[in-house]
Amino acid sequence: MSTLDATRAELALIILYLNKAEARDKICRAIQYGSKFVSNGQPGTAQNVDKSTSLARKVFRLFKFVNDLQGLISPAPQGTPLPIVLLGKSKNGLLSTFLFLDQIVWLGRTGIYKNKERAELIGRISLFCWMGSSICSTLVELGELGRLSASMKKLEKNLKNSDKYKNEEYCAKLQKSNERTLALVKSGIDIAVAVGLLQLAPKKVTPRVTGAFGFVSSLISCYQLLPSPPKSKTH
After folding, report:
1. What angle do CA 63, 35, 206 make, to 5 degrees?
2. Whole-structure pTM value
3. How far is the C-alpha of 177 from the C-alpha of 122, rounded, in Å?
4. How far apart are CA 23 and CA 17, in angstroms?
5. What is the pLDDT of residues 198-209, one digit of tens each?
6. Nearest 5 degrees, angle CA 33-CA 128-CA 222?
7. Residue closest to 190 by CA, chosen among 214, 224, 206
8. The predicted structure's pLDDT at residue 148
């Protein structure tokens, strides 16, 4: 592949990535929390960027709650233990509720919905829903990692006399394990971000700490949304 072809392929991947509304939302999220880290809750340019980006992101999420409603009513993969299924459904339900209530918050901040006190209360309830969905997600990932670990150990015993890293099934499980570990880390960070936004521990989780955690979580989300590079053809 020539340098020009390689550049074209890379540009195509960037365009594919930026065409995703979810990717643009997560880039905006990184800007939002990066600004929160810089401002540390103090008035100024950084805080203005934080607030304006937060409001702009809510437009990306209009009617997004339907996605998690679909996940809520979709059947779970066969063989999934009931506790993990229930936690997964709870996560979908809580996240869908958060996204639905977040639309009312957006209406309040734009001035369409006039009851400011109720809009603030709804905003707080929505954040508790998001924190709950992050806790459920953390528990789901822990459960799934436990299942994957047991499955991989069983496979290792069967591959005792051969190189396990050359086995496609083992490599697929290892990749899945890495993905779930990253998702677990992100969910844990999101819980800390929710604690910061709700000011449940204002002395420990300051706006700067919230901003730092939110920025890292956003970068992880951006990475998770990266498209897979095309496989090079061998002649």
Report:
1. 95
2. 0.89
3. 37
4. 7
5. 999 999 999 999
6. 35
7. 214
8. 94
- C-alpha separations of 58 from 169, 177, 189, 191, 219 in Å: 41, 32, 21, 20, 19
Within 13 Å and on the Cβ side, how many CA atoms surround 80?
Answer: 17
The answer to whether 188 and 216 have CB atoms below 8 angstroms apart is: no
For 171-187, how does the pLDDT look when each residue is reduced to its tens digit (9 = 90+)? 999 999 999 999 999 99
Is the confidence at residue 2, as pLDDT, over 80?
no
* DSSP letter assigned to residue 201: S
Distance set, CA 60 to CA 88, 104, 133, 160, 221 (Å)? 24, 14, 20, 50, 15
Of 105, 76, 106, which is closest to residue 90 (Cα–Cα)?
Answer: 76
Residue whose C-alpha is closest to residue 93's, from 133, 134, 145: 133
Long-range contacts of 82-91 (CB under 8 A, 24+ apart): 83/143, 84/140, 84/143, 84/144, 87/136, 87/139, 87/140, 87/143, 88/136, 88/140, 90/132, 90/133, 90/136, 91/133, 91/136, 91/137, 91/140
